[in-house]
Amino acid sequence: MYILKRIFVLSFICLLYACKEDKKQNTSTVSDTRDSIIVSIPEKQQPINTINTVIAKNGLFVRKRPESGSEIIIKLPFKSQVKIIEHTGITLEIRDSGKQIKGEWVKINFELPEESSNQNIDQSGYVFNAFLSSRFNNRFKILKWGEIFCDFQAYFDTDTYSELEIIDTFQFAFRDVEYDLYNYEKPFFWYNLGLETSYTASNLEELSRLSLDTLNEEYNRKYKYIQNLNLIDEEYWEKQRKRELSILKKSYDFYTIQIKAHFDPKILLTLDIPASKHEFCDVYIERLVSGGQSLIDYWDNFVEEQCKNNYSPSNCYHESIEGKGTEHEETYARMYLIKWALGRCTKLDAYRAYEEQTEMQERFVSTLYGFEEDCQETD
Fold first, then answer.
1. What's the domain range around 336?
2. Final residue before a domain boundary, out of 100, 134, 168
3. Where are the alpha helices (DSSP H) in the chain?
4. Angle made by CA atoms 87, 88, 89, in degrees to the nearest 5
5. Distance (Å, rounded) from C-alpha 148 to C-alpha 193?
6. Residue of 333, 343, 205, 209 whose CA lies nearest to 274
7. CA neighbor of 73 nearest in space, from 9, 125, 13, 10
8. pLDDT tens digits, one per residue of 171-199
9. Whole-angstrom Cα distance, residue 36 to residue 295?
């Protein structure tokens, strides 16, 4: 599953940076999506022969004339360097997500990219200068990360996002993948933004370690951590933060019930049981609360039913009746039934779907520029 997930994320990243650019209208206002245009305030007009860097995420079209319908000479990739050789005075205005960008068509000289299939084309043409920057090294910073087989790097625009926003949002979006963030130091939770405190027990030693105090400490610490993350200042990320805090709270409530039920099953009488589950749950809770031989008999029947369809029914049964016939038989029956059946009787829904997590990763990657990957070949 991990390999498939990694392949999916990498495939999306590659597609995200595929070349595309919408047509733009000269001296008019046109609508574009965020992934086809960089939203920025055009920099102050640069003198002739000034070196600029292409900051269009998906590459910048160079045209034969200073108009959007003109023939395309080439598309220059992000981070290409060009020299402005003429200001045309022909302006262009673009609307993106309610924001307007004004700029000018300028004539440039450029070097052909190494991967260009045509090395004999004219190395001058016209571009929209809102996609150029004379202060690239100060404006764009590198984010480097990696995992077991691959190293990655991309740029983020400090005119749009702070370093702290990028780092915290990266951690929040990619926490379930074992990445290392190379060029920044900050403690990560990775897999465990969710609660990790033990809330079930299979034997007496594990039972003795169940602790509401430990659970409370972890919950409060992680709730505060998520609440204080400096996520990208967009409605989408605040919605995800609220969703994550809701998941954490639901998990905490469920874990609390589980721990308390090991020592006082009467707490289960307070459960809000889904209507479709009453037939099973009413009997289940009644046996846990009553205890004694009726609980032990219910344990036996439950294990037998669970193991019927197991690939090895005999082994399943013997592994599920630890403590049977001992002085702690009733305690083992309670531990087993709480661990394997209580979840049926709750409205937990305390998880984030794989699709939701992948969506967050895609959303984060869409804020970056000039993505590069270096992966080892594996047998």
1. 272-345
2. 134
3. 2-16, 136-139, 163-173, 204-209, 212-228, 235-263, 278-290, 292-307, 313-320, 329-341, 354-365
4. 100
5. 21
6. 343
7. 125
8. 899 887 777 788 776 655 544 678 889 99
9. 64
Per-chain mean pLDDT for the chain: 84
Name the residue among 56, 184, 65, 47 with its Cα closest to residue 126.
Answer: 65
pTM of this structure: 0.79
CA–CA distance, 248 with 351 (Å, rounded to integer): 9
Tokens of 201: 């027990």
Q: 72, 100, 134 — which closes off a domain?
A: 134
Place 355 in a pLDDT band, splitting at 50, 70 and 90: confident
What total number of domains does the chain contain?
Answer: 2
- Sort strands 124-128 and 140-146 into parallel, antiparallel or unpaired: unpaired
36 assigned to some structural domain: yes
How far apart, in whole angstroms, are the C-alpha atoms of residue 103 and residue 219?
50
Residue 115 within any structural domain of the chain: yes
With a CB cutoff of 8 Å and minimum separation 6, the contacts of 290 are none
Give the span between the Cα atoms of 133 and 12, in whole angstroms: 28
Q: How far apart are CA 74 and CA 125, in angstroms?
A: 9
Residue 82 lies in a domain: yes
Write the CB contacts of 192 (distance below 8 Å, at least 6 apart in sequence).
none
Residue 32 lies in a domain: yes
